[in-house]
Amino acid sequence: MTSPTPLTRPARLAAGARVAVVAPSGPVPEERLQAGLDILRGWDLDPVVAPHVLDRHAGFDYLAGTDTDRAADFQAAWCDPDVAAVLCARGGYGAQRMVDLLDWDALRAAGPKVFLGFSDITALHEAFATRMGLATLHGPMVAAVDFLKNARAQEHLRATLFEPESVRTIASAGATPLVPGRARGVTLGGCVSLLAADLGTPHARARARGGLLLIEDIGEEAYRLDRILTQLLRAGWLDGVAGIALGSWVDCGPYEGLRAVFADRLGGLGVPVVEHFGFGHCEGALTIPFGLGAELDAEAGTLTLDEPALA
Predict the structure, then answer these.
(1) For 118-149, what is each residue's pLDDT tens digit?
(2) From the candidates 220, 276, 281, 295, which is the catalytic residue?
(3) Residue 216 is among the residues annotated as catalytic for this protein
(4) Reading across the β-sheet that carries 273-275, which strands appear in turn?
(5) CA-CA distance, 226 to 220, in Å (whole number)?
(6) Strand 273-275 versus strand 136-138 pairing type
(7) Do residues 70 and 99 make contact, with C-beta atoms less than 8 angstroms apart?
């Protein structure tokens, strides 16, 4: 089983680095944004807020401003030579609506930077992987409650950004093997409903072959997760996947029912599967780098990166 090539790692952050905060998806509560900015300043970072982060779309209250404005904010932040990282304020819904409005040639020309987000931001993680060959960080967002309230989530993200060699082994104390074993591959994943929604779109990843797939979701009942996983199976997207880690499933129903779906849909792939890995919408969520070579040990509950997440 051949693993895909690891992607380009952006540089780690240093004290005084300027970081841009953008809102590619849903509307951002101002008080939570300000609290998140205070945390970043406490890390000796210099956060700048994109012009439309606090906008609300006039017709669709689930969007942070118009698609054009959200894309323009993102474009300007990434192409600013003084910005070392682009951090998402929150997820929600909307990234798919603006991803094709970005000038990917200009983004490539601006060079690699740290990109951070999760949930709906999965659409952008996939775009950075397939259109730019850039490794990204799936982790807590600036205006998200977990980042604001949970010390473990903050510390794991801070270590990943500033001292990535200290978190080369990512361990989840509650992890248990659904299918035991070890696997090597390149990390990818995110919100599984977004991965399914990406199928058939321009520049979508053809399949997860050779990858270590880390998936989670929120608000999807067991039958809908069954449908999502079945769609990925029928499309051949899971053919050749090397291993799977299951994160959080907040508001998805009793876990016993979810576990039965995962065992039924994923257990026959013949690869290690670990559950309760502690990333995604849960409290104290771990930061997971995407696009790096790694080893997944389902029984130990560890993901060991071949090299630090950031250069």
Answers:
(1) 999 999 999 999 999 999 999 999 999 999 99
(2) 281
(3) yes
(4) 169-171, 302-305, 293-297, 182-191, 211-218, 243-250, 273-275, 176-179
(5) 10
(6) unpaired
(7) no
Closest alpha carbon to 216 in 237, 195, 187, 234? 195
| SS3 of residue 291 by DSSP | coil
Check if 281 is active-site: yes
From 216, 220, 275, 295, active-site residue? 216
DSSP assignment of 186-209, as one string? EEEEEEHHHHHHHTTSTT--S--T
Tokens 């082994």 correspond to 169
What values do phi and psi take at 183, rounded to 5? -150, 150
The dihedral through the CA atoms of 144, 146, 147, 149 has a sign that is positive
pLDDT at 1 over 60: no
**What does the alpha-carbon distance between residue 43 and residue 111 come to, in Å, rounded to a whole number?**
24
Residue in the structure block whose two tokens are 């101002």: 30
Q: What is the pLDDT of residue 5?
A: 83
DSSP string for residues in 111-122 = ---EEEE-GGGH
**Residue found by looking up tokens 């780690």 in the block:** 12
